[in-house]
Design brief:
Blueprint (H helix, E strand, L loop, with lengths): L2 E8 L1 H4 L8 H12 L3 E8 L5 H5 L2 H6 L8 E6 L7 E3 L4 E3 L3 H15 L5 E4 L11 E4 L2 E4 L2 H18 L3 E2 L1 H5 L3 H8 L8 H13 L1 H7 L1
Parallel strand pairs: 1-2, 1-3, 3-6, 6-9
Antiparallel strand pairs: 4-5, 4-8, 7-8
Length: about 220
């Protein structure tokens, strides 16, 4: 049995927004490892609408309080999809975090997270282009597009390879997955319903880099 404490740093998709069970993919991943005989403590540090800039400002304190040197720990960074969005608000009109800045911010987070143990980087998921933009309330909208998400994901993969950090390209894995697309369509086109998070959990749980750590 492997005992592991994991800080999952991210946004609403990390948080599990849209999942009626409130488990998302992070708690499901912990449950799945428990079924395999492992003891995984899940710290879900996903905050809705967070960009990499916003997560970078908080994650060291949050992870440091949870990932203690006396225990086996790891960090999984699942942030970036909000960086790719075009915001239309009174505060900003344009990209929330430009590509180059986004890559370097998350890379810096990965380097910092090494102090707590192994680091994993999970890329952003696809959206339903036809359902964009999203307008959470009057005067604010976020325009997500698969073309931009793919561009960000490719840049993340390249930077992760340079750092020697395992990277999971969820965009490529899920872009043509009809069941995942249906789970997005059943909600708002960005956040899947429960079935989508089950698919994400399965993909991440089968990731060779993750399995190598647990098994």
């Amino acid at each position: 049995m492997t005992q592991l404490r994991v800080g999952f740093v991210g946004d609403s998709i990390t948080n599990g927004t849209g999942d009626a069970t409130l488990l998302g993919w992070t708690l499901r991943l912990g449950q799945a490892e428990g079924a395999r005989g492992h003891d995984v403590t899940v710290y879900n540090l996903g905050v809705r609408a967070d960009t990499s800039e916003m997560a970078a400002a908080r994650f060291e304190v949050e992870c440091g309080a949870r990932l203690q040197p006396a225990f086996s720990c790891a960090t999984m960074l699942a942030i970036g999809i909000n960086d790719s969005a075009d915001e239309d608000s009174t505060q900003r009109k344009g990209r929330r975090v430009p590509l180059e800045a986004s890559v370097e911010i998350i890379a810096g987070m990965a380097e910092t997270a090494r102090q707590w143990g192994p680091v994993f980087w999970v890329g952003p998921t696809p959206v339903v282009d036809a359902m964009m933009p999203l307008a959470p309330f009057p005067g604010l909208s976020f325009g997500f597009s698969n073309a931009t998400i793919a561009e960000y994901g490719a840049a993340y993969a390249a930077r992760a390879a340079e750092l020697g950090v395992p990277y999971l390209n969820l965009f490529a894995a899920l872009r043509d997955d009809a069941d995942f697309t249906a789970a997005l369509q059943a909600n708002d086109g960005l956040h899947p319903v429960t079935a989508g998070y089950e698919i994400m959990c399965a993909r991440i749980g089968e990731w060779p880099a993750w399995r190598a750590l647990l098994d």
